[in-house]
Amino acid sequence: MKVTVNGEPRELAEAASVAEVIASVTAARTGVAAALNDEVVRRSAWETTPLRDGDRLEVLTAVQGG
Fold it and tell me: What is the pTM of this model?
């Protein structure tokens, strides 16, 4: 299936979860947020939220600096 992740098209296995895609984008364990089709997905739901063909997932990581 085709899903857009952070603005880039990706080919994923059927029923890939939000958690699986986040793990492929970042190794960070904290400071990560996800939005699926413009709706925030709570961290507790990442494992159980499947992606579908045509979905848009944004994975955001906190950045510190000055």
Answer: 0.90
